[in-house]
Amino acid sequence: PSVSQVALRIRPMSAAELAEGARPIAHRMDEQVVVLRDPMEDPDDVLRASCSREKSYVFDVAFDSSATQETVYRATTQGLVAGVISGHNATVFAYGPTGCGKTYTMLGTDGEPGIYARTLGELFQAIEDASGDTKYEVSVSYLEIYNEMIRDLLNPSLGCLQLREDAGGAVQVAGITEISAISAEEVSQRAPMGHGGDPANPPLPGAARLPQVLRVLARGNRQRTQEPTAANCTSSRSHAVLQVTVRQRRRGRGLRRGRLFMIDLAGSERAAQTQNRGQRMKEGAHINRSLLALGNCIKALSHRASTKYINYRDSKLTRLLKDSLGGNSHTVMIAHISPASTAFEESRSTLAYAHRAKSIRTT
């Protein structure tokens, strides 16, 4: 069985955290271990001297603030591309409190592209390099789940979309816009890409096709529901789901389909930290409910022997991901925390959630 991978990324301290006198309490000890220290415990308390103030958490891989986007991509997501091309499902999701760098990891910036761009580039390159008797089609859809409603980020005017199960039991979003990102004909007509330009910063693989798709995604991302909260002035209030479908036709072998979900989850949060009221508070409740449903599925999957039933129907998010959490799927979670003493409670619950996800076993 394929085992899910759980990574943890600690972002740098923010200017606001430094200004309010926060100190770093989360540290990466080695490639897999992160230590979190409780800032409230008194080091001179003799009675509690035997209790360790530090708790360590072990992950498949841990990154501190010096890790580059390329390092994070290679260690977490690069290995999924070959499986998706050959017909397997995979899911990568960024999890963590609001303002801890999930969107940076997934979308990135122009100068530091994130997992979306790097994965698509690698996928296009692998298809260009594939043997000639196989035809590929790649299509991309981009949606958000906001207050348990599904919106098409590539065409928001479609309104609220519904989930449907097809005859094979696969969950689909009815009426979602799919853009054709690449087909075998386009690949064969295109001249091979040279690696000119800056040798220190080579272009992403498959770069000939990539900018067009990324422009569409950037436009979609601007449609996302964002609102300022006390924890983050551009807090994403929705889960953004980028779905990449690869259809492979090989002479005499029929059709294979692989799906890759890349998900920038909404921030897990306590209302006290984000100081949410009214509408923000309601959104936060929806966000936390769907993250709880995801956590429950993860918990049930990690105790497969004792749990017969896994409730995917508790949220739109878990229904959509049903095939990609269980089944012949690889799952990668990249959890994000702030190292600041002021974020201790958020960091502790994120580390515990991610640690639990480490024991998922899929078949």
UniProtKB/TrEMBL annotation:
Residues annotated as binding ATP: G96, P97, T98, G99, C100, G101, K102, T103
Keyword Cytoplasm: yes
Pfam families given in the database record: Kinesin
Keywords tagged on the record: ATP-binding, Cytoplasm, Cytoskeleton, Microtubule, Motor protein, Nucleotide-binding
Name of the molecule in the record: Kinesin-like protein
Entry GO MF terms: ATP binding; microtubule binding; microtubule motor activity
Extent of the signal sequence: none
Source organism superkingdom: Eukaryota
Top-level taxonomy: Eukaryota, Metazoa, Chordata, Craniata, Vertebrata
Main location group: cytoplasm
Xref: InterPro entries: Kinesin-like_fam, Kinesin_motor_CS, Kinesin_motor_dom, Kinesin_motor_dom_sf, P-loop_NTPase
